[in-house]
Amino acid sequence: MTQTTSSAPPAATTSPAIGAPATTGAPPLAFRQGRWIDGWNPEDTAQWESQGRSIARRNLNWSIFAEFLGFVVWQLWSIVVVALPQAGFDLTTGEIFWLISIPSLVGATLRIPYSFVVAKFGGRNWTIVSAALLLLPTLAMVFCLSNPETPFPMLLGAAALAGFGGGNFASSMSNITFFYPQREKGWALGLNAAGGNLGASVAQFVVPIVITIGAGASVNLPIAGWIWIPFILVAMFGAARYMNNLSNAKADFSGSAAALREPHLWLLALLYIGTFGSFIGFASVFPKLIADQFPDFSTIAVGGASVSLAFMGALVGSLARPYGGRLADRFGGARITMLAFASMALVTVAVLLTLPLGQFWLFLALFLVLFASAGIGNGSTYRMVPVVFAVRGGGTGDVSTQRKAAAALGLISAIGAYGGFLIPQALNLSFQSTGAYGAAFVGFIAAYVVLLVLTWAVYVRSGRLSAHKI
Predict the structure, then answer these.
(1) Model's pTM, two decimal places?
(2) Across residues 375-382, what is the average pLDDT?
(3) Cβ distance 335 to 327 under 8 Å?
(4) Right CATH for 54-249 from 1.20.140.10, 1.10.150.20, 1.20.1250.20, 3.40.640.10
(5) Tally of CB atoms within 10 A around 254
(6) Read out DSSP for 229-294?
(7) Is 252-470 CATH 3.30.70.100?
(8) C-alpha–C-alpha distance, residues 430 and 446, integer Å
């Protein structure tokens, strides 16, 4: 059906009243079947103030909820693997690390195509589909964890399906960027990202409780998947009922191709692996590290349930991210990113030196500082991207430069997520080779130092770039 009907008031098609905000002459909004909107232009002040803001906020709210669930599902296997031996599963350390890391590998890879699907299918339509896809990993988890005899390849396949949750970030961010004007885009995208990241923390807090409450000396692992299914159904309903598709949302393949030819995209992606990759990688592996190094503190009994303190890492990292962006606005993203890498390197040295002491609370405090540093680095590195591309484009801020920067943000978010695979696998390699995790921590320290030097050499030492407070 192609006929359009507008739900805007009749006055929207006439000259604005005296004293109304100025308009750029955009056509009035038209609403079509399937919740499509024609004529969307958030830069038009009159349209934004009269209808656009409320529509954008409604779409943002449901986008945050759907992305939140995506992060929850993405992290589920990193939580339940700690309880697999107690439930009767016989797995090697290497197999457990593969169950932790495979969702990040799949999720990072899916972020690339997910960046473009909103323009093809519509943001509302794809949110319904991407939320529905979360039913696959949750139901697969329920099925596989119901039987301790489930073979490892089947467990690995179910864990790989959790990667659908990681892909949701790219489509969600891509969708919301079309709804907001340039002056409010950073805040909206920051809320969207932070709301999603919090899903990792909430899952790490809730799952250990629900799988142990009323289970006595055992655990009820399938409920780790069951509990999220009603929320996924709510997200599907909310997206279908309250979200919208924008007809002017177009995939920017040429912008992506141009961004891929820009050397700074790859440099910034490397920095983002160090910041966001560390956040999501350590968030995934933190429950396992606590269980291995401090088994008495893996969970804390509270009434008839068990609580894991691992959720605090992802929580601190998520809450620190907006402050990284704010500090970058004031002092420059490169300088804040340097400080983040310096802090991450020093804290990792402290972890390495104090681990033999067996002091859990010291270990936890150091890791919380590490998560906070990574979170701040997430925000500051992400803020660097549009500034670097603007400087590379001559500082004009023209449409071509903005398109390249927007495409680069999506690609960098995808590449950075591979850190969620690399960190668990580095720890696995260290354990398989030496029987301990020390070698991996040494490698992390070296990587943070290299990234710090790289940030200084390219973005701080260079007079032209540092003059723009990158």
Answers:
(1) 0.83
(2) 89
(3) no
(4) 1.20.1250.20
(5) 12
(6) HHHHHHHHHHHHHH--EETT----HHHHHHHHT-HHHHHHHHHHHHHHHHHHHHHHHHHHHHHHH-
(7) no
(8) 15
